[in-house]
Amino acid sequence: MPPSPTPAARSPRAALAELLGGNRRFVSGQPVHGHDVTAAAAVASGDQQPYAVLLGCIDSRVPLEAIFDQTFGSICVIRTGAHVLDRAVLGSIEFVVDQLAVPLVMVLGHERCGAVGSAVAALRTGERPGGSLAYVVEQIAPAVAEVGADDPQVQPLAIRRHVGRTVAALRADDLLAGPVAAGRVAVVGALYDLATGEVALLPEEA
């Protein structure tokens, strides 16, 4: 079993390499972390030292610890519909970066996202959903509008655009912008393929 990253090796580049290496193990059918209770007990008594925080979707087909083959104590996970940011999410990421010295923030979107589909439907019909789902749709709507709700490829394109907008918002956050500019923290966007299990980094302009 590969050792967990040590604080001395926790650069943004090393953190990203470890995360993507775990995804390659997952895709190849050779994960090393089985989420056994003994692994939980092994890290229970010490301070946590995660090397990344992942913001992903609530979709049940995208369990982040599994698709990156990570064990207890290695990553912090936040999941909302279409990885929508709110103050609680931002505050949580700020805490992890500031208090736990995590060098990597990843925003992970995925194909066929239901929340993005709801935003597309709302813009096409002009009918907004009720309740707090309306807030989620409103946060995704700018990405859909930038692509164009009537574009035949609106959903896959809007998913990528929404990831890019989320990454940009995190990089511009008051408490994250300094560490990002100094190179101590990286914020990256990625997309998960439901069929293959592969995670692909998105280009800066996505």
Can you offer a commentary on this structure?
With 206 residues, the chain is an alpha/beta fold. The chain has one domain: Beta-carbonic Anhydrase, Chain A (3-Layer(aba) Sandwich). It has helices spanning 12-27, 37-44, 64-67, 87-99, 114-125, 133-147, 154-171, 177-181; strands at 52-57, 75-80, 104-110, 186-192, 199-201. It has a five-stranded mixed β-sheet with strand order 2-1-3-4-5, with helices on both faces. The chain is globular and about 50 Å long. The mean pLDDT is 90.
Fold topology:
Layout: H1 12-27, H2 37-44, E1 52-57, H3 64-67, E2 75-80, H4 87-99, E3 104-110, H5 114-125, H6 133-147, H7 154-171, H8 177-181, E4 186-192, E5 199-201
Parallel strand pairs: 1-2, 1-3, 3-4
Antiparallel strand pairs: 4-5
Relevant terms:
44% helix; Beta-carbonic Anhydrase, Chain A; alpha/beta; 206 residues
